[in-house]
């Protein structure tokens, strides 16, 4: 006979085992932060080590007895495992402990459900939850395995469990169709930005690295930012002006975490595609986190899973105000290109270095040089002025107008195409003085 599960509970026992196959992939402190982010009140943590999990209870019989004692001692209504449990293990543990048992995946899904604000975000969370629930539907519902009874319902037909599974499948199909529509809308938005040739820079990084605080500091926005895991779930995009570059789209995305459930990566693919389609990534890192190297590796794994690992990255070491004697700085490689910025978004220290680095990296697509326009090219001259591309202007003795220009390469090509003229017809010189051949 299955017990009656309580509807809710906040007092929680945490379970973290050092499994040989998973060694070094998870941090008990991070697990406690996850529990707190979900609204639980951890009262005890049970830890231990095993070479392999027990097939029936995940933990051994000795640890199971310890867990029972902790549950009764603290009157806990919830046990959280920092591992992925099978449906049968969850069912067996709940029967033995007489309280709710959730694994790491379910805990993260619950946090995502609390954080979702937009219609798209709620759909993505619901899809991931339903896909996860579909394998666990039988848990606590064994009394529904029999077929429906009552007047007009006797005889062959669906069991209640089969009905629930069918309804789940239909709901999952419906959500996927709606998310496909969202994905098409996002694709249309990206195509519009590509036509406008506006560079897109995406903030990526481990959860709670300070991406939203940095986003707010750079854009002047008021995106929700809090010192908790997964404070940001829905992507936000803002247009910012960068010196010597012009308009740039900055995108704030959901944070990554170690062993991010694959169902979430799949469900949030439409959102994560914003990172996969960016021109380059600002990989934001908590400089004060002792586990920052491990976190950086986890971010790279997720980027590889969504096909974004080949996009150029700028490392942004945030929270340097938590380090002693650390000043903002910009690191460059042997070629002089920016590779890392050390700053504090909270204190707004070093933001000018970040803007300089973005300007230089996006500036690789800039055209700078001199054009020589004849008297009949007045409309072309006007287009360059409207694009704020003219650095200086001078008229030569032969009547031609000498323009020193700097503008994005795409804008340069688009202006020439609009006037149906080529660079050779304006004597374009990318730098320095024009050659005799171009002046002829």
Automatic annotation (TrEMBL):
The keyword GTP-binding applies. One of its GO terms (cellular component) is cytoplasm. It is found in: Cytoplasm. GTP binds at residues 205-212, 230-234, 252-255, 318-321, 344-346. The keyword Nucleotide-binding applies. InterPro entries: G_HFLX_dom, GTP-bd, GTP-bd_M, GTPase_HflX, GTPase_HflX_N, GTPase_HflX_N_sf, P-loop_NTPase. Its cofactor is Mg(2+). Mg(2+) binds at residues 212, 232. Its main location: cytoplasm. Residues 199-366 form the Hflx-type G domain. Keywords: Cytoplasm, GTP-binding, Magnesium, Metal-binding, Nucleotide-binding. GO terms for molecular function: GTP binding; GTPase activity; metal ion binding; ribosome binding. CDD domains: HflX. PROSITE patterns: G_HFLX (PS51705). Monomer. Associates with the 50S ribosomal subunit. Belongs to the TRAFAC class OBG-HflX-like GTPase superfamily. HflX GTPase family. GTPase that associates with the 50S ribosomal subunit and may have a role during protein synthesis or ribosome biogenesis. This is GTPase HflX. It comes from Marinagarivorans cellulosilyticus.
